[in-house]
Amino acid sequence: MPYTVEVERRFRARQGLxxxxxxxxxxxxxxxxxxxxxxTFDDAQLTARGWFFDTDVVGGLLDExxxxxxxxxxTALFPFRPTFELxxxxxxxxLSPQIxxxxxxxxxxxxxxxxxxxxxxxxESDQ
Length: 127
Hints:
By secondary structure, the protein is an alpha+beta fold. The protein has three helices and four strands; from the N terminus they run ββαααββ. The protein has helices at 55-69, 74-77, 84-95, and strands at 3-13, 31-41, 102-109, 114-119.
């Protein structure tokens, strides 16, 4: 696929998990998180207007996700242990039915500079 378009939003989150490294900051403090999604497509899929999908619509979906993710601690929001890996996978499952050809969901912890990306599973036609 020759194109990947990314749409991103920043928000503040409280993960709620205990970790020795995070204890250097005040416990329960918010972290700035970058949520980014990538959509892949090729030339044949461009419309007469020269684009494949509406980034404003995807931005709106990300705004909703960010509002949800910042509404409470992640330990209260998810029925699983909310690591960045598992939250990225959950977001991919939530967004992929609404975003055609969603290639990945990425969460970046801005404080620690770590990025977690969950990719779409390859189909047999991709191999």
